[in-house]
Amino acid sequence: MIDILVYSTYFVLIVNLIAYSYSFFRKEKANVFLLCYLAFSTVMQLSMELLYHLGMTNLVVVNMFFAGQMLLLGMFYNSLTNVKSQKMFIKISLITALLVLAIQFCMNSSVFLKFNLFEIILTNLLIVVFALFHFYNMLTEDKTYYYISVGLIFYLLASTVLYLIGNLSIGLSDDVKLLTWILNSFLVLCYQFFILFEWIKSFSKKAFSPNKTTLK
Amino acid sequence: MNTHSIPEKELVAIILYISLFFIIVSVVLIIFFYFSRKKIIQKELEKKDLILQYQKEQLHAVLQIQEEERKRIAQDLHDDISSKLNIVSLNTHLLSAPNLTEAETTEITENIINLTAKALENSRKIAHNLLPPVFEKFGLHAGIEELCGEFESSKSVKTYYKNELDFDDKEIDRHLHVFRVLQELMNNSLRHGKSNEIWINFKEDKGTNTCYYKDNGVGFDSEDFENYRGLGMKNINSRISFLDGTISFESEKGKGVEVIFTF
Prior knowledge:
The structure holds two protein chains of two kinds.
Chain A: H1 2-27, H2 32-53, H3 59-80, H4 84-107, H5 117-138, H6 146-164, H7 166-170, H8 174-202, E1 213-215
Helix pairs in contact in A: 1-2, 1-8, 2-3, 3-4, 3-5, 4-5, 5-6, 6-8
Chain B: H1 8-96, H2 102-130, H3 133-138, H4 140-155, E1 158-163, H5 172-191, E2 197-205, E3 208-215, H6 231-242, E4 247-251, E5 257-262
Parallel strand pairs in B: 1-2
Antiparallel strand pairs in B: 2-3, 3-5, 4-5
């Protein structure tokens, strides 16, 4: 059951990566940071899978993934917004968050060997805030990357809680231990489908503009 | 329970972090809703302002049109009727002068008869221009036919008029607007477009009455909004909005004008 979910997640992720890189390299339309994010997620997922098969703990990679995800999605939303104060906020909060994480790593690197609760909350909530900035900007303008943002907020809010109780589940018995992770991979799959849907809506069609003026 | 394998400190940390998470999420969402609401309300106000501005502009246009129309009528009356009547009155004064020969009397009377005939003709023309009697008596179809006839006879324009609609005489008030729009369009085609062929076609399209208008003049750039700011265009637009219709212009430089409007 969980294998199917996990592997279909990998599959959709790779489909997304291919679709977006096609749009980026052929039509030069997709956002470069989004593409980086997808590539980064793919690499991280595959290395996590590899570490798992080698029988090593992959939680270090998970923690790296959170930091990288925040950085890339922060830059993604930074490139979408045109409001100066928002750009400033995104940049400052990204730098501060990375600094804080670096300090934490220097002071106590053992937290990176399990679920780093502070890091999870910090990175995921910052992304949610950035996505809400984007929603705020979209209120009166055309929708761009709308479905991705919807999927992202949905996924992050739901999965953050699952990650927060991740340390708890280590001590649980094997039958119930995986329950939260099945739920999590289901959420990831939903999120990846949102990204795919975004591509279908925004990039797969050819845009055309009729040369006509209508007054009413 | 398996909690014995997890230190109590960690359990507390998890609970604290989760509560912190929910607190931050709720605060962020509330702030988001607050600012979104503010933004939406502001946008709505801007929209209302824009509508008001537009209405104001239309009102100005109406007043301006009214003044111009008055000026035109005054000019017509002054040039074509008053001047003639002046000469008539001069001539009648001449008639009352003593010692006139028979020939002079007949010449003066002839003058008077001619001039009054001309003045009459002119006053008829002015009245006709203001509201064509054919339109009032026989409806829009006949009115447009006559309009086309006038354009053909006096202004060397070839017109092709086709009507597939059945106009209801009860809606004559609405039809007057349609008539005026066509009049304005034809005048524009002639004056600005220098066209010599005009097509007018009334059709029913998806349940609404639609008029297809086309000429072969010089055309204009339909993407350039400066072209929609003239008084005539404003007049057309306000008439169409009065009819609850839509209008679309399609034109390119050198390719004539195509106008489609519904009413």
